[in-house]
Queue: 2 jobs
Job 1
Amino acid sequence: MSKKIAQVVFGLPIEGPFDYSVDSNFQESIAIGSRVFVSFNRRNAVGYVVDFRDKSPFARLNPVIDVLDKSPVLSQADLVFARSFSSFYGCSLGEALETILPAVLRKKNRVDFVFPENLPNIAAAEGKVTLAHSLNRKECFNFLSEQIKAVLENKQNVLVLLPEKILIKSYSKEISKVFDAPVYCWGSPFTSKKDLDIWLEIKSGKYPIIIGSRSSIFAPLRNLGLIVVEDEGNPAYFQDQTPNYNPREVALLRQENEKCNVTFVSSSPSAETWYKKEKYDWEYKYFPAENQAQVQLVDLSNYNPGKMSYLSYPLQSQIKKVLDEHKKIILFFNRRGFSSLTQCDKCGFKIKCERCSVNLTFIYSKKKMFCRRCGFSCDLPKICPKCEGAYLKSSIAGIEKLESEVTRLYPQAKIFCYDKENKALPEEANVIIATQAILEIKDGMKADIVAVLNFDAEVNKTDFRSGQKAFSLLVDLNLMAKEKLIVQTRLMDNYCIKYLKKLDFKAFYKTELKLRKELQLPPYNVMVAINIRGTDEEKIAGLSQELHDYLEQNIKKGVEVLDSKADEVSKLRDQYRYNVVLRSKNQETLLSFIKSSLKKFKKKSRAIITLDTNP
Ligand SMILES: [Zn+2]
Ligand SMILES: [Zn+2]
């Protein structure tokens, strides 16, 4: 093939490719998949060669300044995968490639490594997808071990995805007990030159097993036989990044391209995954719990709401009983700190973050106020910053406040708070007050009684997935309880509670999916939010409305423009945020409409525009 003109893409939200002339001295070294150094927009930049051509419609071309790789770091398969990734997530091919590659290769770092050319060509796996619905960690792990064993025996490789980095080490220990194949723990973001060596080793097949969090879904394993996605519905998998990918979906893209098997593991699968299991007839394995704790409901509407306590009388007597019998209880209360709202008693002024539209949380143990979104912290003001009123009251209690109430009621108890800040749990603790941070230790954590103090707050969140999330929460807490799960609620007829009692997953998903269908929500429709951010609130609100109107005027069949409105957190890190939400039955139709519209839409003011494909 002639290599006269190289077609190059960049990790920017512009499509390309762009033509560059190739000098004779680079004819040997340049190839499809090579990184090159070129001039782009009057600046030197790293680009990726995606093709060659003989002629260009442009008369004068810039030359390729340098070829950075001795042998191309991107294989043909990587390019195919990046193409499907870019059309799935509506990003440019260059952005997709930069998402796949480690950060260190986005810079002008040379790679002198030569990839082994003739990697063994092994028959692909079946490309089978399994949902392992696990209420029994041990049984499920045995099942996964069998799957992994079969893959390794076939000289193929395994990738295990975990929602949180902190889980990687203990998981790899468990795996190493069963298999003596080299395991690589993928934790670092691969930013240094040393990291690059490891990445190259992985790419040349040194590690048959990789265990990592979110970004390891792009691990450059060849001969991939199996991807295991542990705790597939865990929200920690989704991050506010561009492109806004979901590793669960990326696993299925790899499955399509590489014909590997995929196993999703969950104690209560996401509604999206359950829907796909039914639709595509995935294999389904259910691992029932050894024993199910009894569920007891406490109807809060029977208690005087004026007396503001988070401990109903039945729960109080239960705590007393636990202490008398030397047992252990977890009080689940999903609010950090002492109080999540501090307000002036005189003028009603709320103490907010300087940079966000978020009320500051007061953390008593640190004597500081914190923003739960940006990490900003400051001292508790002595007087109201607005009216100089002298009394600031805490109104929405967090676990520290609950702790002081429990301490007052049960001075003999060994009380301990478990949250994001405090993760050491002494053996002797018998009353554990915990936020959802406790769910990370699902495995070893057991208590005789588990009580959910404020279930209604979980269901009443604005997120359309809140029902599903509340149900998952109850399932996981139920697994922690040896004897009994107590749920305090005013929503006695709520379907999450109803189906938890019988542990009737089928009925739960039927109800949840029926609701989603009626409201035209995912998985029946794809929703994408166009996020518009900037420092001038008025301009951002105006721009969002203009974009909304523009999209409506140029609407395409099969796409709906919903509304333009401020984000739930309307200001974050000094930037105002607005969203235009669109809906369609087909993701590619929707994203291609958005992409072509955004290209034509003339912004009248400065703003950052990104897409959220998982709103
Ligand atoms: Zn005031
Ligand atoms: Zn903040």
Job 2
Amino acid sequence: MTGRGPIDIGGVKIWKAALDRATQERLMECVERIAEVAPFFHPETRGGRKMSVRMTSAGICGWVSDRRGYRYERRHPAGMPWPAMPTPFLDLWDRFAACDRAPESCLVNHYVAGVRMGLHQDRDEADLTAPVLSISLGDDALFRIGTLRRGGPTRSLWLSSGDVVLLAGEGRLVHHGIDRIRPGTSRIVPWGGRINLTMRVVTGGDASRSEAEAQD
Ligand SMILES: O=C(O)CCC(=O)C(=O)O
């Protein structure tokens, strides 16, 4: 179903060229609809610095950052609820994540030339055993994969449009980041650059499952 098996780097699984062009275009249409309802914004760090990456979200909650720190919120910083998680996103979760809980949040990152994301762990979620599924659309990006330890050795590989990355099991808390994109390598994103979709289960309990299902 997913073609060739994944590459495994330190527990992080990468399926190269997993999504065909039609699927990528369908996902991109969903991103455009999300951005119409919940526009991209540049989050601020706790220190008041604007992040270079632009973000928005879909699902019952979205990841935000400002002077109060990183967290998930039920509303966009401008006050509107996040758009519902699109069905094509849920289909990918079912296909790759091997998780009996539905994703509650999809972070949508937009990278252009010069934008990067530093090495970090995804640990703002209540259940750190639930997987994180990441989809690349648009320009190539240099993905850096470290270890569970901050400051450990790293390896890099280029992610292209249609590649799928899963952080699960021993790879769930591996440090990772984006060093740079290669502008103009894809025409999938109408505004240019790269879109990354990251789906996550955010809450810890059963209550969240019924909330996520109530969105369907
Ligand atoms: O853009 C990517 O491929 C990685 C995104 C990421 O690490 C994150 O949003 O936490």
